[in-house]
Specification:
By secondary structure, the chain is of the alpha+beta class. About 55% of the residues lie in helices and about 10% in strands. The protein has a four-stranded antiparallel β-sheet, with helices on one face. Helix 9 runs antiparallel to helix 10 and helix 10 packs antiparallel against helix 11. The N and C termini lie far apart (about 45 Å).
């Protein structure tokens, strides 16, 4: 079945070469998910997203408070039965599954929330954190941070550090790195569960989404080694070497490459 034409811009082959501002998070995530669902066109799901954005735009504006925006955004999804996952799921990066079942991991839901908010004219970003899923909503005059918990609900949080404004030290995550984080979360989980082949597939996708991200290639090499694929591991290490100027990392990579060539 052919994919909905609205996804063609995010053809997986081209996704890694798009400018970051040209990546629409939910559509790009659906394009990635299409690799696991080749018999679906996704048109109905894209219509659902467009309908929610239109509804949100009718009930809230960028001039309203961040708290009001969060309430309207959360309500738009909850009225359609969306909910979180209280237990981790090994297919946590599958946006198709999250939309079709109306249930997703916090990061998957955050991507849907952010993309819908932006489509409705609001300002929404995922914050660059290693733990927790945090969204910043609102204008510069009235910004607020909300955690997306396991149930999918927004929870207001303060991320101030020693009295410092969190905007000074907590940067937004780029669209590309948001997709990388989504895939990495699932890759880490399937590795823990011992599904090496799935881990290889996911690590490969990450390198296509972010081809200049050295860590993606290093993780790909690691799982290749675990799967007994020395040639592929060497190729991934060479790719990592080509994407970094960090002298310490380059020495480490050259040593590993030499090992694979010996």
């Amino acid at each position: 079945m052919d994919l909905d034409p609205r996804l063609h811009k995010y053809d997986f082959v081209n996704l890694g070469f798009l400018e970051d501002e040209d990546i629409v998070l939910d559509l790009a995530a659906l394009q990635i998910a299409s690799l696991d669902h080749p018999n679906h066109s996704f048109g109905t799901l894209i219509d659902l997203l467009a309908g929610m954005a239109a509804e949100l735009a009718r009930i809230v504006t960028p001039k309203q408070t961040a708290a009001r925006q969060a309430m309207a955004l959360e309500g738009t999804f909850m009225r359609r039965g969306f909910r979180g996952m209280t237990e981790p799921h090994v297919r946590s990066a599958d946006i198709f599954r999250a939309l079709a079942s109306r249930q997703g991991a916090p990061l998957a839901l955050a991507i849907l929330y952010i993309a819908t908010a932006r489509r409705a004219g609001l300002t929404a970003v995922l914050l660059d954190t290693t733990t927790g899923v945090f969204i910043r909503l609102g204008s510069e005059e009235d910004e607020a941070v909300f955690a997306v918990d396991a149930t999918g609900v927004f929870r207001p949080v303060s991320l101030a550090q020693d009295g410092q404004d969190p905007r000074v030290w907590l940067a937004p995550t780029t669209n590309r790195m948001t997709l990388v984080r989504l895939l990495e979360n699932e890759a880490d989980m399937v590795e823990i569960h011992g599904d090496v082949e799935r881990a290889i597939a996911l690590r490969s996708r990450i390198t296509k989404v972010a081809p200049t991200h050295a860590k993606a290639w290093i993780n790909k090499a690691r799982v290749d080694e675990r799967a007994g694929r020395p040639f592929q591991a060497k190729e991934s290490l060479i790719a990592a070497l080509e994407t970094t100027r960090d002298s310490t990392l380059r020495r480490m990579l050259k040593s590993k490459i030499a090992y694979h060539m010996s």
